[in-house]
Amino acid sequence: MKKLLVLCFISIFGCFDLSAQEIIPLWEDGKIPNYKQSNEKEEIPERTILFIQNVQTPTLQVFLPSKKNANGMGILICPGGGYGGVAYDWEGTDYAKWLNSQGIAAFVLKYRMPQAASVITSYKAPIQDAQRAMRYIRFYASKFNVDKNKVGVIGSSAGGHLASTLGTHFKTHYYDSKDDIDMESTRPDFMMLIYPVISMKKGITHNGSRNSLLGKNPSEELVLQFSNELRVSENTPVTFIIHSGNDKTVPVENSIRFYQSLVKNKVKATMHIFPEGGHGYSLGKSKKSTPDWTELAENWLNTLNK
Length: 306
What we know:
By secondary structure, this protein is of the alpha/beta class. It is built from eight helices and ten strands.
């Protein structure tokens, strides 16, 4: 009888699309750009969060709401980690589950670290993976129940720098096209930046992120290239920003300067600065002092999807 029930369960659920949480390699074997062979392996140190270091195989993990709840929006998620690793659940899969509850398809990016032994040019690797991910989502938009004109990005901390790079460097192609997927646009339709690193300028930036991305002695040209407050134009996507005034890791000046550049270029921008919260609070649920910003974000997202 038990076997019969199990078989019935499989036959019933086999009729449904169970592609949610599918993990997809971004690049075909042998086609990862800016890559060289090394003995390095991915590592997950013992922490209270799932933190992945030395990423070797960039992937997208797909989280889909039910078709009845899907509203056509999709969001690429760039977890933080100081460009030294990926806070995969804390600022990745937890965000995806929240977004699914709003009817939004979510895609968690596991991207390469700039200083990995398998990376040739440090600063290119994360943005190469992010650009490919955005194109992949758009190319397979119908499969994911997503409108390819409603695909945004969310990033936290160093992931916020990567997200803002995606939204301000879309005219720069950081790798050569490899297939039809690469014909899609890399420009996100909107950005959500959560306590983001924005600038690479000393005194403003997060030094750990800067050193990992650009090296310890980068040229002034490279510093300016990845100080994303300087890359804003009238074509930069509409943006939602969250930061805390007492953030001692990533100064709030990062968000303020980016917001000012958006306003100067007449890009619609919403920013919420909280007096407390510090840095690295994910969805803002873990402590009373951290800002519970998700309701503000939900209201903002609803204004985009009309």
